[in-house]
């Protein structure tokens, strides 16, 4: 994934949370270069961070069904891979 800022919209399919995101991937350009996520995340720049370094993780895609879900404990869980709560409850998740 390119390190270009994207300015598209993230939409959680479970709680209907919608917000513009700046980047989707595992190495956001506005985090420290040493930080690399184990999953592809949707994130925005932290508007309060000094030197434009820092961000806020919004969510990711369920590793089973592929739907976008936010990081709320009511919508997803992360245990090696992101999983929406629906897939986790019915046991469809792959760990």
Given the C-alpha coordinates, what overall shape results? globular
End-to-end separation: 24 Å
Percent of residues in helices: under 10%
The main sheet orders its strands as 3-4-5-6
**Number of helical elements:** 1
Low-confidence stretches: none
- Tell me the major beta sheet: 4 strands, antiparallel
Report the C-alpha radius of gyration, rounded: 13 Å
| Class based on secondary structure composition and strand pairing | mainly beta
Order of helices and strands: EEEEEEEEH
Instruction: Count structural domains.
Output: 1
Strand content: 35-45%
Q: Averaging pLDDT over every residue, what do you get?
A: 87
- Give the total of beta strands: 8
Protein name: Cysteine-rich DPF motif domain-containing protein 1
Family: Belongs to the CDPF1 family.
Domain Cysteine-rich DPF motif: 10-90
InterPro entries: CDPF1, CDPF1_dom
Task: Give the structure's gist in a few sentences.
By secondary structure, this protein is mainly beta. It contains 1 helix and 8 strands, in the order ββββββββα.
Report on the architecture of this protein.
This protein has 95 residues and is mostly beta strands. The chain is built from one helix and eight strands, in the order ββββββββα. The longest helix has 6 residues, at 85-90. It has one domain. The mean pLDDT is 87. The strands form three sheets. A four-stranded antiparallel sheet has the order 3-4-5-6, with no helix packed on it. The protein has a two-stranded antiparallel sheet with strand order 1-2. Strands 7-8 form a two-stranded antiparallel sheet. It has one helix at residues 85-90, and strands at residues 8-11, 18-21, 23-25, 41-45, 55-61, 68-70, 76-79, 81-84. Strand 1 (8-11) and strand 2 form a beta hairpin.
